[in-house]
Specification:
- This protein has about 260 residues and is α/β, with parallel strands linked by helices.
- About 45% of the residues lie in helices and about 15% in strands.
- Strands 1-4-5-6-7-8-9-10 form an eight-stranded parallel β-barrel, surrounded by five helices.
- α4 packs parallel to α12.
- About 45% of the residues are buried.
Length: about 260
């Protein structure tokens, strides 16, 4: 089993447990459930930087990235840096995140928040809404076309933006549908963990212009972004680059200043 299959197997067990602990009615009655969402898609369309900055403590490929920072400080720092949105990893077992991280980020900032999670059930989309997310991530590699349609339409019914992530042409072809807002190309091969910007470049021409194009993974330099912009990418998810510093907000500020000058 590769890492993605292992994660999904554990996630199915986790969701069953969470459903037994917190009923849907409790999620729907949460204070944040009726909060108006902010569209990351619209912000990216009008941004000069396109940066989506991530809060990530660790990952299966890199082990510990940064365990010492408070989510609140990271979120405030990112907002002050002028990023377009913040990605919050909520998977506990493999990434050291939690839904509480999403709540904390929500309390600290007004910008769009993406719940970065391995979504395999509508229940997780309700959780995202209840904990203050504006955007959900769907991963084509772990979902059927029918599930992508079901989950994306369900998210749209709650005014959540949908970012769909693909790794290759086959995943892209099965995924294109009107209920998506953004198509993300993950430059990391999930089986080998090798990273190549060529993945984004080669898939860019196959993504219809109705969608905002987002490039994910392996983006750590201004040069990488400038290399991808001519291919129509308007969003750039930066996961580890800021988080491996002592002050992600300051690091993001300097990065964006250099990028847009």
């Amino acid at each position: 089993m590769d890492i993605l299959e292992r994660i999904v197997l554990d996630k199915r067990k986790e969701v069953v447990l969470r459903k037994s602990l917190i009923p849907v009615s409790q999620l729907e009655s949460s204070v944040l459930f009726n909060k108006e969402t902010v569209s990351l898609t619209n912000i990216l369309k009008n941004s000069t930087s396109g940066i989506i900055a991530e809060h990530k403590r660790r990952s299966p490929s890199k082990a510990i990235i940064n365990n010492s920072l408070s989510v609140q400080d990271v979120a405030s720092g990112y907002q002050n840096a002028g990023v377009c949105g913040m990605s919050v990893l909520t998977d506990g077992k493999y990434f050291g995140g939690s839904l509480d991280d999403l709540l904390t980020a929500r309390a600290a900032t007004q910008m769009p928040l993406l719940r970065k999670e391995f979504i395999i059930d509508e229940y997780q989309i309700l959780e995202a809404k209840a904990y203050g997310a504006d955007v959900i991530l769907l991963i084509a590699a772990i979902l059927t076309r029918k599930e992508i349609k079901q989950f994306s339409e369900f998210a749209k019914s709650m005014a959540l933006d949908v970012l769909l992530e693909v790794h290759n042409e086959e995943e892209l072809q099965k995924s294109i549908m009107p209920s998506l807002d953004m198509l993300g190309v993950n430059n990391r091969n999930l089986k080998t963990f090798d990273v190549s910007l060529n993945t984004s470049k080669s898939l860019s021409t196959l993504i219809p212009n109705d969608f905002v194009k987002v490039s994910e993974s392996g983006i750590s330099t201004i040069e990488a972004i400038k290399e991808l912009q001519p291919y129509g990418f308007q969003g750039f998810l930066i996961g580890e680059n800021f988080m491996k510093t002592d002050n992600p907000g300051k690091s993001a500020t300097n990065f964006i200043k250099s990028l847009v000058k």
